[in-house]
Amino acid sequence: MLSNLLRITFLFMLLTQLSWATGKDQDDTHEFQLSNGLKLIVREDHRAPTVAHMVWYRAGSMDEVNGKTGVAHVLEHMMFKGTDKVKAGEFSRLVAAVGGRENAFTSRDYTAYFQQVEKSKLDEVIKLEADRMSNLNFDDAGFLKEIQVVMEERRLRTEDNPSSLLNESLMATAYMSSPYRHPVVGWMNDLQNMTASDAREWYRTWYKPNNTTVVIAGDVDTKQALATVEKYYGAIGAQELPVRKPQVEPPQKGVKQVQVKAPADSAQFTMAWKAPPLESGKLDNPEPYALELLTAVLDGYDNARLNRSLVKQEKVVNDVGVGYDMVSRGPELFLISATMAKGKTVAQAQASIRKAIEEIKQKGVLESELKRIKVHILSEQIYKRDSIFGQAMEIGSTEMAGFSWKDIDYMLEKMQTITPEQVQAVAKKYLVDEGLTIAVLDPQARKSVSQESK
To answer: What is the pLDDT of residues 229-288, one digit of tens each?
Structure first.
């Protein structure tokens, strides 16, 4: 009784704290649309004298076409190769010179660039980033050198990594028409045949202010930030963007399976079910929230169901993980991945997973179980908002998926309303063989040094 009372009290405290924090975030966050179409979102957070500046282009690997996969990521590399005013390699040096850190990343849905600097240096990084939005200038020799770097990155991170190889084959098998079937880094043959012109064309097509969201978070004055953004980004002209084709994934008609043979210490596998993401304009649909909570029921804490049964009790796998992205531009998968324990088979582990899922379908989940998970989600959100960079990341990634930063708090509130019955319902509806793809890694012996030298 006391334990339940403490849990309820803690939940109330978290809800109160988050309610205060989210209300404050709403008041301290301001959105602007420049005349050239660029969206600016400024979140004031004056707890530390630093600021995060992020530029989000709504162009990722899902916007690529066959034969040019990987070009979004390649251009990310080329964006550091100089402009008419800034020489190759100077961008990073200039950011470091003002005591800042910077980087970039490409995903299926977007490409983003960021700098985190002391607040007085914000104008300088805005000027640098706006310059390369419109004045990128790299030669063919520089491209040929950098494409070798990207190919080596693919070799190290994918071709020499059995888990990455398995995931790549899984995605290519699970999706038929969605561009999510292509790896973000690109297929090696496409990289080998990519030209500097391909990268320049991608830049001219997508790197425009009307395809961009700038997020500034931290110890910043909104009016001053807006004035600086208008001065540098506002001078760049808008351009008509290509029409994006929907590329709707056709319904799956049964189990798909793929096997990958690669050097590895243990067998691995992933079971992936087609599952719907949240749709903009349909924030009240309970299914994506219930699927998100279902991942936590199975793998959201140390003693969650799959870890308890497969790792601790049966000892059939060394580790197990569950994933699902509720917010994205394309179709989604509900994933369960595991690495086999010595002497155990993939069939044994899959049977144990199916048993755990069937138990949820038949008996549902406990109210106390769901409450514990909801408390964890709330506490994670509060901790996340302690980070200026984390706040900017959350805003930008949400905007890129087609939602508004204003939706974030509503999503959190909606998550708290999901019932055990709704979690049980999505397990019954979506974790079925008709939408299942299974990828299995068959481990091969690693070559010895003497074998490789022959």
So the answer is: 999 999 999 999 999 998 899 999 999 999 999 999 999 999 999 999 999 999 999 999
CB 340 within 8 A of CB 267: yes
Q: How far is CA 419 from the centre of its chain?
A: 27
- Burial state string for 143-167 with b = 16 or more CB within 10 A and e = fewer than 16: beebbeebbeebeeebeeebebbbb
Q: Are residues 165 and 293 in the same domain?
A: no
Two structure tokens written together for 394 = 């959350």
Residue pair 247/177 in contact (Cβ under 8 Å)? The answer is yes
Q: With left for phi above 0 and alpha for psi between -120 and 50, is residue 20 left, alpha or beta?
A: alpha
Same domain, 319 and 366: yes
Claim to verify: residue 190 and residue 45 sit in the same structural domain: yes
Cβ proximity of 433 and 255 under 8 Å: yes
- Is the residue at 246 inside a domain? no
Token pair for residue 252?
Answer: 């799956």
Number of domains in the chain: 2
Mean pLDDT of 410-422: 97
- For 383, the domain range is 256-444
Report the pLDDT value the prediction gives residue 382, as an integer from 0 to 100: 85
Same domain? For 354 and 416 the reply is yes
Do residue 324 and residue 197 come from a single domain?
Answer: no
How far from the centroid of its chain's Cα atoms is residue 290's Cα? 19
Q: What is the CATH number of the domain that holds 341?
A: 3.30.830.10
Taking the C-alpha atoms of residue 269 and residue 284, their distance in angstroms, rounded to an integer, is 34
Q: Do both 227 and 93 map to the same domain?
A: yes
Compute the distance between CA of residue 2 and CA of residue 79 in angstroms, rounded to an integer.
58
